[in-house]
């Protein structure tokens, strides 16, 4: 158990959690508020669909980064937490970062050019940030878990939506609250993270990892750590997992 885990093992004090968020020890999710619920989410975790849907249909307001004070134990609204399998989110985030860095020319690169681009991003990001859980690759299950454990959250009003699962379609979640808009949600394309895998990207990542054990460890450390908390959420809050 490392120092951070020891801290959380000894306390469920939300003031401490707020301090940890402020020190960026764990990541601060985005959130939005509607008439019916607060929703926590992240980039490559439904953020574009959530933001666009709320704004287009005037369902509420996007409030930027989440503040711990929003969970004061007094809200009558539901709390929705949008989560993802960390390996899928990380790979999806990497693809987004590469497109941003290369101005959307990734598909035009040869395998060797793409390998060099990925390698450079991995090395530069770790050298600067000290982690590969960064930007669109940032993972949130650890933050979500401690958030849920360090507050007096009414589990009857909690919904955890795994958008990588069959039952975790955000269209269905929003339609529970605005059934008259379901056809519009579907007509706008609906929402799903279950798209074809980035097979080419994964193939090249494996090639890089075969060549460089340090990068392999940096990637696996980030994903496995978040996977630990992803599994804890699904185990300890299994009754709150949203299924259609």
Walkthrough of the structure:
By secondary structure, this protein is α/β, with parallel strands linked by helices. It has one domain (3-240). The chain contains ten helices and five strands, in the order ααββαββαααβαααα. A five-stranded mixed beta sheet has the order 3-1-2-4-5, with helices on one face. A hairpin with a 2-residue loop joins strand 1 and strand 2. Helix 6 (141-149) packs parallel to helix 10 (213-236) and helix 9 crosses helix 10. The longest helix is centred in the C-terminal third of the chain and has 24 residues, at 213-236. The protein is globular and about 50 Å long.
Blueprint (SSEs and pairs):
Blueprint: H1 3-10, H2 14-22, E1 30-34, E2 37-41, H3 47-56, E3 60-65, E4 78-83, H4 86-101, H5 111-129, H6 141-149, E5 158-162, H7 170-177, H8 182-187, H9 199-211, H10 213-236
Parallel strand pairs: 2-4, 4-5
Antiparallel strand pairs: 1-2, 1-3
Helix pairs in contact: 5-9, 6-10, 9-10
pLDDT under 50 segments (min length 5)? 1-14
Helical fraction equals 40-55%
Put simply, the count of helices is 10
Work out the strand percent. Answer: 5-15%
Distance from N terminus to C terminus (CA atoms, Å) equals: 37 Å
> What is the helix/strand order?
HHEEHEEHHHEHHHH
**Strand arrangement, major sheet:** 3-1-2-4-5
């Amino acid at each position: 158990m490392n120092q951070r885990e020891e801290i959380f093992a000894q306390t469920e004090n939300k003031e401490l959690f707020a301090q940890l968020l402020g020190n960026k020890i764990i990541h601060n999710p985005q959130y939005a508020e509607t008439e019916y619920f607060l929703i926590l989410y992240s980039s490559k975790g439904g953020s574009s669909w959530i933001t666009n849907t709320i704004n287009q249909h005037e369902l509420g307001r996007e409030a930027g980064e989440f503040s711990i004070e929003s969970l004061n134990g007094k809200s009558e609204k539901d709390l929705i937490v949008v989560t993802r399998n960390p390996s899928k989110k990380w790979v999806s985030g990497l693809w987004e970062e590469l497109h941003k860095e290369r101005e959307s020319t990734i598909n035009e690169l040869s395998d060797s050019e793409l390998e060099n681009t990925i390698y450079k991003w991995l090395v530069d990001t770790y050298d600067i940030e000290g982690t590969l859980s960064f930007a669109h690759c940032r993972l949130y299950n650890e933050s979500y878990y401690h958030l849920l454990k360090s507050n007096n959250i009414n589990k009857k009003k909690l919904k955890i939506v795994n958008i990588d699962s069959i039952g975790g379609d955000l269209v269905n979640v929003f339609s529970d609250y605005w059934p008259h808009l379901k056809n519009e949600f579907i007509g706008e394309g609906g929402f799903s993270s279950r798209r074809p895998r980035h097979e080419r990207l994964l193939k090249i990542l494996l090639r890089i990892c075969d060549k460089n054990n340090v990068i392999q460890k940096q990637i696996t450390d980030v994903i496995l750590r978040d996977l630990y908390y992803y599994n804890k959420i699904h185990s300890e809050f299994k009754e709150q997992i949203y299924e259609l």
